[in-house]
Amino acid sequence: MAAYLLRRLLIAVPTLLVIATLAFVLLRATPGGPFDGDKPMMPEIRRSIEARYHLDEPLWQQYLRYLGDLAQGDLGPSFQYRNTSVNELIAQGMPVDIIIGGSALLLALLGGGALGMLAALKRNSWLDHLGMSIAVLGISVPVFVIAPLLILVFAIRLQWLPPGDWVAGSWRHALLPVLALACPYLAYIARLMRASTIEVLASPWMLAARARGLSTHSILLRHALRPALLPVVAFLGPAFAGVITGSIVIETVFGLPGIGRHFITGALNRDYTVVMGVTVLYGALIIAFNLLADLCQAWLDPRVRLK
Amino acid sequence: MKADAVPGPWTEAWLRLRRHRAAMVSLVILGLVALASLLLPLFSPYHYAVPDWDAIFGEPRWQDGHVFGTDNLGRDMLVRVMWGCRISLLVGILASLVSVLIGVIWGTTAGYVGGRVDSVMMRFVDILYSVPFIPLVIVLSVLFGRNFLLVFIAIGAVSWLDIARIVRSQTLSLKQREFIEAAQALGVRTPAMIFRHLVPNLLGIVVVYATLTIPTVILFEALLSFLGLGVRAPLASLGSLVAEGVTNLQSHPYMLISPAIFLALVICCFNYLGDGLRDALDPRDRGA
Fold this sequence. Notes:
The complex is a heterodimer.
Chain A: H1 2-29, H2 43-52, H3 59-71, H4 86-121, H5 126-140, H6 143-157, H7 171-201, H8 204-211, H9 216-254, H10 259-268, H11 272-300
Helix pairs in contact in A: 1-11, 4-5, 4-7, 4-9, 4-11, 5-7, 6-7, 6-9, 7-9, 8-9, 9-10, 9-11, 10-11
Chain B: H1 9-19, H2 21-43, H3 77-113, H4 115-130, H5 133-144, H6 148-158, H7 160-174, H8 178-185, H9 190-226, H10 238-247, H11 254-281
Helix pairs in contact in B: 1-11, 2-3, 2-11, 3-4, 3-6, 3-7, 3-9, 3-10, 3-11, 5-6, 7-9, 9-10, 9-11, 10-11
């Protein structure tokens, strides 16, 4: 177990290196720089600014400097927000993303799991058919359509909830973004859970549990839930990556001050360090979450070998 | 086909698919949407790019001939939505072909050659799985400007990973079969082995996952267009039309409804079709 963890963490290092390098090369291969503004800049000023951010050095030297700083956890200064470091920008935006993304993932897991199991138990009933039709719809309607529709209905027409903006600690401001972000994953998890529960219910050990005269309640929660959760847990890694992408969209639509917004404006303004920093952060989060999902899978089913 | 003839694997798959009602309905709907997107703009009196200043923000009405209404420049929404379907379907199918091609070649090579080559190739796939590609593609499209070709390549390059993994695991099991051994004994070289003997036997599973790749690609392109990074202005994809609809959501919600419905419809149909094809073609479920 410890050896496995260590190995996975060791693999994470070259992966992050690849991500950082990819981001660096792609960004620098494109025309334009962070200080090509609309206003012409005096050559001396430009040179001094570029020297301050080490943009006058040869590329390989900048690359090595970037990797060196990265190894120490320093993502460098932002170019567009003077006197602000990328670490500070991320620290500002992170709480919003943790609340929105975390709640959305939790909602998708609990809601989707419960719905899927219910549909499996009532297989081929009208409840099952209705639920699964809605689930296919949920997968097919992208986040950027669901979000404005939710705004239209609940904020503009019914005026129950605010249409956007962010007030820290206000659940009313968080509700619509969380719902919109959770929708596709909730639907997908419901479908996965339904299929796996049906498979588990048909297995011999379920028959054995029934033959022992256990109550339906105990059969479901103590015997069926654990194996049925396996494919759902395996999906959590990709779902997490999707929630990251979705959060970028959600922040744009609802005007939330998260990391994704810095990422988009950073890309528009050629703010190299912000874009690279956020990309590396996303990569690290995806790696961490995949590892967590694998560990969960091994815990749920000891037959899954950690190799 | 004679009555006593044994149906070939593809005929059998087609018969199984025909029994899948949702998949068949989806296939018909997709065909109709494709046909309409090709023909309607040809026969409509309106052009997708020509503004009509007298018809700005026209609500959907039969009498005017603007069934889906008109947009902020007075352009007919029906023609624009059909153009959006054209672009989205085109991107979805072409980019899926690119990713299937890469995935199949990568997966069969890794699986068939095996050993160190296999572990290096699959480790590479593992690493790519952790790269936050969609954010990177967003950055790329921002930087290179709206380059349609780039969107194609980027999407195709991202979505081959799943196919590579599935194809590899199928290749590993095919490798154990006698016909491969026989071909090896006859001295067939590796490239010929992959393309003549392995790939044809993988086609079923490849068709299934290609069909399931198309909707994700369409969604991806729509996402890029939604963020203003996909197709160039007068042209429209379903994503950019949705974005225009969102901009005018408060005053003219009908501008969101028609492209959103078509986007959801197309994605929905591809998902159902993929489900049906999986039931008909995936060897893992056969005989159950």
